Amino acid sequence: MTAAAATIPANDQRALLTRYDSRAPRYTSYPTALQFSKEVDAEVYGDWLAGLDPREPVSLYAHIPFCDRLCWYCGCNTRVVKKQALISEYVERLVDELALVEARLPGRIKAGAVHLGGGTPNMLSRDDLVRLFGALRHVFPFAPGVEISAELDPAVLTESWVKAAAFHGLTRASLGVQDLAPHVQEAVNRVEPFEVVARATHWLRQAGVASINLDLMYGLPKQMTADVVATLDKVLTLRPERIALFGYAHVPWARTHQKLIREEDLADANGRFEQSQAAAERLVKAGYVAIGLDHFALPNDDLALGVATGTLRRNFQGYTTDQHPTLIGLGASSIGRMPGGYVQNLTAEVAWRDAIVQGRLPVARGVKLTADDRLRADVIERLMCDFQVDLAAVAARHGVSSAIFAADITKLAELRADGLVEVAGDVVRVTATGRPFMRLAAQAFDHRSDAQEGFSRAI
């Protein structure tokens, strides 16, 4: 992937980046969250829960919207909290939300995967962690081999917290690193020496956590290509099983704290591209397999095996091998995926809490999936995961003719002319040169979000 992209003559590369410097969805779902509406409410969600198959395990996601500090680049729903009592109260409401969900289930349903996200899940005290795990297990008994993962902030992680999480089955941890250059850390209000990350990794390894992911970013304020590579040189000494390399999404209209980042400190499209390619080259050279748009994994990791077997998936946490069709979202702003569509909880904690206290599922919005949505979600996911899609095979799975995609293929004309996409019969393939532009190829099949407004930069 990287070697081919790097062979583009500099002038041609600059021209391509200028031509396609636009905005597009990240396609962690289709339809995207911008298409969610109030047509999906608590009543609809309750019906969806009641219609689940008790024989089919589900995935669980619990959102913990608290942090010890406010990182200016962050696009998540979170806030700084210093009082542990507020966090404990939130956990109690999570337990209550679980009870509301349980009341609508058709029977006992097992959990095949559990993810704690945020925010900073390790802001939970050990007692609160035990309380939450107990409630999760009570409502959704954990299936044999359940995968339990958590997003962690190394700066506030303790060895005792790691031991408690490992006791309850933590199998994978994702540590937020972003960049280790002091001037970049200061520019995003996240000062975190490498030693802190190394210490956290050591605790997790000692506790038997088998898989560690490090989150890194490019395109941050004042960040240079040399900073990205130097960060990689340090973290690769820890030999994490996975590395997620995200491009910073500057969306100050959606996250007002991002206004603290000066636009003039951000790299242009050419600079972002250079940073991402240099990082990818370094990772591939170190023996990691490139996974989709922005993930890398060691060859024996489940993600790499998912690429080899064609079973890689994409969801709100990025690339995954989680095959469960249902995701139950818990907590303020959490998003769930049901057979009937997507559902999102109320974002504001006060409104979320009030709904639960009143005995209502705390739903804000969502989207009901149409047959066309399912068709296009299939195409987009395969493009995002495999860099190619057999439209005839997808059409057959959905009981339609591949001719339905004729207009979408026409939208690819410019990308094809520039050598970024190839079409052979019913097979659409993103070329090695075109992989950084993959979101734009996927957007050709998107019938819901043609406009750029609200999305991050595509490259």
Automatic annotation (TrEMBL):
Q: What is its main location?
A: cytoplasm
**Molecular functions (GO terms):** 4 iron, 4 sulfur cluster binding; coproporphyrinogen dehydrogenase activity; coproporphyrinogen oxidase activity; metal ion binding
Q: Which GO terms describe its biological process?
A: protoporphyrinogen IX biosynthetic process
Q: How does it assemble?
A: Monomer.
**Pathway entry:** Porphyrin-containing compound metabolism; protoporphyrin-IX biosynthesis; protoporphyrinogen-IX from coproporphyrinogen-III (AdoMet route): step 1/1
Q: Which cofactor does it need?
A: [4Fe-4S] cluster
Binding-site residues for S-adenosyl-L-methionine 1, renumbered to this chain: 61, 118, 151, 335
Subcellular localization = Cytoplasm
User: Has UniProt tagged this entry with the keyword S-adenosyl-L-methionine?
Assistant: yes
Gene3D superfamilies given in the database record:
1.10.10.920, tm_1862 like domain (3.80.30.20)
**Enzyme superclass (EC):** oxidoreductase
Q: Which reaction does it catalyse?
A: coproporphyrinogen III + 2 S-adenosyl-L-methionine = protoporphyrinogen IX + 2 5'-deoxyadenosine + 2 L-methionine + 2 CO2
Q: What EC numbers are recorded for this enzyme? A: 1.3.98.3
Q: Which InterPro entries match?
A: Coprogen_oxidase_HemN (IPR004558), Coproporphyrinogen-III_oxidase (IPR034505), Elp3/MiaA/NifB-like_rSAM (IPR006638), HemN_C (IPR010723), rSAM (IPR007197), rSAM_horseshoe (IPR023404), rSAM_sf (IPR058240)
The Radical SAM core domain is annotated at: 52-286
- Name used for this protein in its record: Coproporphyrinogen-III oxidase
Q: What does this protein do?
A: Involved in the heme biosynthesis. Catalyzes the anaerobic oxidative decarboxylation of propionate groups of rings A and B of coproporphyrinogen III to yield the vinyl groups in protoporphyrinogen IX.
The text of the family note is: Belongs to the anaerobic coproporphyrinogen-III oxidase family.
Cite a GO CC annotation: cytoplasm
Q: Which residues bind [4Fe-4S] cluster?
A: 67, 71, 74
Q: What does the cofactor field's note say?
A: Binds 1 [4Fe-4S] cluster. The cluster is coordinated with 3 cysteines and an exchangeable S-adenosyl-L-methionine.
**In its keyword annotation, does this UniProt entry include Ribosomal protein?**
no
